[in-house]
Amino acid sequence: MRHFFLSYSPGSDDLYVARFFADLSAAVRRELDVESTRAVGFLDTGDASDHWPSEVRNELAMCQTLIVLYTPRLFLDDRCGRVWTVFGDRLRQYTHATGRRAPALIPVAWSGGDLPEEADPDGAATFHPPSADGVRVMIRLHSQQAAYRDLVASLARRIVETARLHRIPPAPPEADPRTARNAFESWRGRLDGADGSHRVHIVVAAGTREQMSVVRRDLEFYGERQEDWAPYHPAAPQPLARRASRVAAERLFASEVVPIAAIGERVARARERNEIIVLLVDAWLADVEPFRTALAPFDQVDESTVAILVPVSRDDAETTGHWSTLRVGVLNAFPRCARRRDPLLHTEIETAAGFDDDLVVALVEAQSRIFAKGRVFRRPPGGPASARPILEGP
Fold first, then answer.
1. What are the backbone angles phi and psi of residue 358, rounded to the nearest 5°?
2. DSSP SS3 for 69
3. CATH number of the structural domain 195-373
4. How far apart are CA 65 and CA 89, in angstroms?
5. Which residue intervals of the chain bear CATH 3.40.50?
6. Which of 145, 151, 252, 316 is the most buried (most CB within 10 A)?
């Protein structure tokens, strides 16, 4: 049994989160007076929102406290919302069985910035550091080290004390984070806005490892699903769709990954609702059927809000060696965008960092187009104000 499970939305702070987890684990072991090698916590790195190894599911089902690092983008992370739901259901089960409330869901203010007022659901009062900028800044500043150590020690005491006083029952067998609802969905609606300009659909136009075996020799960039495509492997082994979701979340865009087979009707719907589509294209498939037919709706005549990004990793010798031919296929797949040199068409992106930069540029450009030409949504005159959404807590 682990004393705590640490949930957060991965991004540029990963190294600082790893240090915080190590420091907190050491402090908990001191409180328990156990050997330094004992594992008392579990860090969920959340490599993909729909990838849940059995170890993650088991630790979430058995841990005694849930530590959640509060950042604005946390509430855009579907994985974190599902973790919250599974543990929150365990707390409700405990309250129903004992008549007592366990303060075992502990949000920690990780970074500054605007958080929803609803972010302190009942039973989950936020653990606020003395710095208004959050724990992240305390870790980085030498002048804050004493205060940071005190905060970690205080949090460790709360974890140990909560685990001692309350025995949270394990999750039932049917509790599965893969199918659990996202506890943050109601708040996400606020961020999307009425005009939809903060909603991004991420579409992966790539093959599975099996599909690509008839197209190319080097298959290390592919997985069992199309969404597993990781073109910057091994330098950046994370699936590109997940990386795109993180970049979008850091800019406070809500996003979802959509299979290309189901995207046809979404192009028109996204335009109607002022939403953004990000199309991630494997150049090997741009001129191959049935992918070329599936890509045709994205090649719009006017200035659409479809961003097209084509990675060509400098570490992928097979792709770079065939790029002159592959480039022709990409341009043939998107002739209108290529002809007008659309700023939303980004080809030959050589590095993962370059992909991040190009995606941010594309999101800003797409949102600017929405603001300039998008459909205007107006609230009916005299209509009642919408109710304030509330996060469901334990």
1. -65, -35
2. strand
3. 3.40.50
4. 13
5. 4-184, 195-373
6. 151
* 360 has pLDDT over 70: yes
- The distance from CA 96 to its chain's CA centroid, rounded to whole angstroms, is 32
- Does residue 113 surpass a pLDDT of 60? no
Q: Which residue has the tokens 């300009």?
A: 197
Task: Give the predicted TM-score (pTM) of the model.
Answer: 0.60
**What residue type is 240 in one-letter code?**
L
- Distance (Å, whole) CA 99 – CA 116: 29
Sequence-distant (6+) residues with CB within 8 A of 83 are: 5, 7, 44, 60, 66, 68, 177
3-state SS, residue 142: helix
Does the structure show a pLDDT above 50 at 390? no
Beta-strand relationship, 306-311 and 345-349: parallel
Q: Output DSSP code: residue 173.
A: T
The pair of three-digit structure tokens given for residue 292, joined into one six-digit string = 């070329």
Nearest by Cα to 205 from 257, 271, 276: 257
Per residue in 177-216, pLDDT (tens digit) is 988 888 877 655 554 444 445 788 899 999 999 999 999 9
Backbone angles phi, psi at 265, to 5 degrees: -75, -15
Task: Annotate 314-340 with DSSP letters as a single string.
Answer: TT-HHHHHTHHHHHHHHHHHSHHHHHT
Q: Between the CA of residue 201 and those of 4, 198, 210, 241, what are the distances in Å? A: 34, 10, 25, 10
> What are the DSSP calls for 233-294, one per residue?
TTTS-S-HHHHHHHHHHHTT-EEEEEEGGG-HHHHHHHHHTT-EEEEEE-GGGTTSTTHHHH
Helices (H), the chain: 14-32, 54-62, 78-98, 135-140, 145-165, 185-192, 209-212, 240-250, 264-272, 291-295, 317-321, 323-333, 335-339, 352-373
pLDDT in tens, 33-75: 998 889 999 999 876 556 788 999 999 999 999 999 988 778 8
Is the peptide bond preceding residue 384 cis, with omega within 30 degrees of 0? no
Please give the pLDDT value at position 37.
Answer: 85
How many angstroms separate the Cα of 182 from the Cα of each of 186, 291, 303, 390?
9, 32, 34, 13
